[in-house]
Inverse folding.
């Protein structure tokens, strides 16, 4: 989901995820993977905990 869509979400908005707390997720920036992490649920809050930063391709700045 692009950041501009995330910024427009209102309180109580629902985002369906196709992963569980045990699944690893990829974190993308400009459609390029930059990190991996896991979904963390704490009460009614959901976050992605970064576990590993991915190496940058040499041709990317």
């Amino acid at each position: 989901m692009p950041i501009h869509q995330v910024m427009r979400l209102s309180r109580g908005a629902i985002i369906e995820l196709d992963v569980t707390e045990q699944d690893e997720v990829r974190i993308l920036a400009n459609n390029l993977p930059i990190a991996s992490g896991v979904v963390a649920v704490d009460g009614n809050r959901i976050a992605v905990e970064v576990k590993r930063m991915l190496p940058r391709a040499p041709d990317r700045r």
Observations:
- Residues 17-55 form one domain.
